[in-house]
Amino acid sequence: MKITEIRGLSAADLEKKYKELKEELFNLRFQHSINQLDNPHKISDTKKDIARVLTVLTEKKNAAQTADKKNA
User: Fold this and answer.
1) At 51, is the pLDDT very low, low, confident or very high (cuts 50, 70, 90)?
2) Which residue in 7, 9, 45, 64 has the most C-beta neighbors within 10 A?
3) Helix-strand-coil percent breakdown of the chain, rounded to 5?
């Protein structure tokens, strides 16, 4: 998933995407442990996607807090 796609999501969508990616990572690790995973590189890709989602989510929260401070 590209960062531009992630930045286009709302905070609620980012939370949902984070939960989906965590579940996918769990399933990938499980498949890898029983040698059913075709492409082990998917694990690292999923970890990077999780990091991207969390980064954008943090940016949005910080931007909202900054906007609140400016308005107050």
Assistant:
1) very high
2) 9
3) 80, 0, 20
17-22 — which CB contacts under 8 Å span 24+ positions?
A: 17/53, 18/50, 18/53, 18/54, 18/57, 21/46, 21/49, 21/50, 21/53, 22/50
Domains of the chain with bracketed CATH = 3-69 (1.10.287.310)
- For the chain, give the mean pLDDT: 94
Residue with tokens 């980012």: 14
pTM of the predicted protein model: 0.89
Please give the Cα distance from 51 to 57 (Å, whole number). 10
The better pLDDT of the pair 1, 58 is held by 58
- Nearest Cα residue to 46 out of 36, 31, 61: 31
